[in-house]
Amino acid sequence: MLDEMRMRVMQHTPRQIVAPGLPEAGVLIAITEQPQPEIILTLRSQRLSTHSGEVAFPGGRRDPGDVDLCYTALREAHEEIGLLPELVDVVGPMDSLVSRFGIKVTPYVGVVPDQFEIIPNASEIEEVFRVPVEFFMSDPREMTHRIDYEGRSWYVPSYRFNGFKIWGLTALMLVELMNTGFDAGITLHTPYDGHNKN
């Protein structure tokens, strides 16, 4: 499963948004190396100024000293959950998106060991949890949000897993990964009728 995902993501040409002047961020879509791989997600602290109390990937804004956004994603993942950069096998970037706070976000897919010491940064992260890839591939959405963006309508799923609500930009990135890396065929551009896959 992961070998095919690696190949598909490496062959993917990500869409780059040209947004001069916008602040940039990098996030890490960390997938565990195991027969039934899982994706590592965080619940952000209620004390944060943006996306407080929301589910997100480890990551954050680019610092002036960061050599690129992949470095940003790895640095932030280390700061937020204790994931050492050398444990991450970076596969490649996915499409960049602009958050509702006007930040250009680029996700990087990385494969990580099934077991490593998670050390949540209490000032930023309330909880770290894992969701099986199979959960997202089955697209068990709780609801669908319509977002008008770049001149077209996007129908973005909202998921609930063990009480965690996974929606917005995070859900959009997850669907893109499911479609690109795992050939899930989840549509984003037609209204959801309960079973429409490409």
UniProtKB/TrEMBL annotation:
Keywords attached to this entry: Hydrolase, Magnesium, Manganese, Metal-binding
Entry-linked Pfam families: NUDIX (PF00293)
Domain of life of the native organism: Bacteria
Nudix hydrolase domain residues: 22-157
Keyword hit for Magnesium: yes
Cofactor(s) for this UniProt protein: Mg(2+); Mn(2+)
Molecular functions per Gene Ontology: coenzyme A diphosphatase activity; metal ion binding
Protein name: 8-oxo-dGTP pyrophosphatase MutT, NUDIX family
Gene source species: Halopseudomonas aestusnigri
Lineage, opening ranks: Bacteria, Pseudomonadati, Pseudomonadota, Gammaproteobacteria, Pseudomonadales
